[in-house]
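Predict structure. Input: [Fe-S]-binding protein, 114 residues.
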Amino acid sequence: MEMTMAVPVSFTAGALAEIRRLMSAPEFDASKFLRVGVKGGGCSGLSYILGFDDKQPDDQVFEFDSQTFIMNKSHGIYLMGMQIDWANGLNARGFTFINPNASKTCGCGTSFAV
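Output follows.
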């Protein structure tokens, strides 16, 4: 498995803890990779992808703080410098995306425009 040097995305300690908690569940499929990416759609034009998936031929493999993740090569321009956090409060619970490339984000925090 080849590693790419410049890691485009970072994770907070809270996000890493939640990802590792999900991966330690008995039903977790250990053949899957953590995928970070974007897809068309959402209120602002693009939506974030964060989930577990099979590695595809166009994927690059990265590692941040001992956490391996995959990302399609073409998604780097949208995600470079983004930080993924985990919110566990009364008003908000879930992963949040802090993306310096987004010119506009929506209220749900899961879609953006560039």
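Helices lie at 13-23, 76-79.
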